[in-house]
Automatic annotation (TrEMBL):
Residues 14-28 have a biased composition (Pro residues). InterPro entries: IPNS-like_sf (IPR027443). The keyword Transmembrane helix applies. The lineage of its organism: Eukaryota, Viridiplantae, Streptophyta, Embryophyta, Tracheophyta. This is Uncharacterized protein.
């Protein structure tokens, strides 16, 4: 009975069936709805009010680096480029020379022989190989004194005549070209300054071959200042640096240190202490160092330390030059004097 009543109530409460389906009721608008009117108004307001202002950024500033000059311009004596070299030497204490005439094959051949020599000298104290590593690198040096007697003694005792002969040829091929460039630079500085030389030391130019071992993860960092290395590097007129692979060249100056890209296609020239003293402070000596990226293989570089003797020789050569016009005038004067004396004695 109770069950029947319950079913009856349910039948009465249910809506009568409709012959056609009716549309669903409209949804109630919610504030959180993505299509609500409030959201549309808020979106338009934010779009207008939250626009990022245009920022006026400074134009990219490229770091100034020492001047780079073609060797041919030095040989031809082009005044524009000579002036730029002098300006770079005054401002940075350094400049760069491209198209220097030392081929990549010459450098590769020298590297092969240098690796053999370092391998033999690895465990020997020769006096020609020095470990000059510091906290941030591991750097070794072979001092190549350009004197036949000293080199032959070294060769007989340590590396043997056969390897010495091959190594010597490769070193001298490169060293002779560096030395010729150094002689030319000596003439350029004397001619540009037009100044008499003071007291000059008679030390011989020395070629150093450096090996950089990349077993220290800090080898890319700038080297810390070292008075010993600073004095060793700057006690000459000029230094010519030639790396055998791409690297950075780091320069320490009295103002602030700076660095720039270097590689085997460019010689880096730095001013030494002798040139600073001779120029009465017009050029400031600097200390430079190669910074090589970490690698499993060792890196190599050359440095020719040019003594003031080269500068003195170049100066004496420039003083002997007499122009063609002067020679003609001198010839005319001698001819006139000859005819005068001939007339008087006749």
């Amino acid at each position: 009975m109770n069950m029947m009543r319950s079913q009856s109530s349910l039948n009465i409460a249910a809506p009568p069936p409709s012959p056609t389906p009716s549309a669903p009721p409209s949804p109630i608008p919610r504030a959180a709805g993505s299509r609500s009117a409030a959201n549309q108004i808020l979106a338009e307001f934010l779009e207008k009010s939250l626009q990022v202002p245009e920022l006026a950024l400074r134009e990219p500033h490229s770091q100034r680096v020492p001047e780079e000059i073609n060797l041919r311009s030095l040989v031809l004596g082009e005044n524009y480029w000579l002036d730029r070299v002098m300006k770079s030497a005054r401002e940075f204490g350094a400049f760069r020379i491209r198209c220097h005439g030392i081929s990549a094959e010459e450098l590769r051949a020298l590297v092969r022989e240098t690796e053999r020599v370092f391998g033999i000298l690895e465990e020997r104290d020769t006096g020609y190989r020095r470990d000059i590593g510091r906290r941030n690198d591991n750097k070794e040096e072979i001092v190549w004194v350009r004197s036949g007697k000293e080199r032959m003694e070294w060769a007989r005792e340590y590396i043997g005549p056969e390897l010495f002969r091959s190594f010597s040829e490769k070193v001298e091929d490169v060293a002779s070209k560096l030395d010729a460039i150094a002689q030319l630079l000596g003439q350029v500085f004397v001619q540009q300054l037009g100044r008499q030389l003071g007291k000059m030391c008679q030390e011989q130019s020395v070629l150093s071959i450096y090996r950089y071992n990349h077993n220290n993860i800090m080898s890319e960092q700038s080297p810390s200042p070292s008075e010993r290395h600073h004095n060793h590097s700057c006690n000459q007129v000029l230094s010519l640096h030639l790396p055998f692979r791409q690297c950075k060249y780091w320069v320490e100056t009295t103002q602030s240190p700076f660095s720039f890209n270097a590689g085997p296609d460019v010689i880096v020239v730095t001013v030494g202490k002798q040139l600073e003293e001779w120029s009465m402070g017009e050029f400031k000596s600097v200390y430079g160092e190669m910074i090589h990226p970490p690698d499993l293989k060792a890196s190599y570089s050359l440095e020719l330390k040019c003594s003031s003797l080269n500068l003195k020789q170049s100066f004496s050569k420039t003083q002997k030059k007499i122009s063609i016009v002067d020679q003609i005038l001198i010839g005319l004067v001698i001819g006139v004097l000859y005819h005068i004396f001939k007339f008087l004695w006749s």
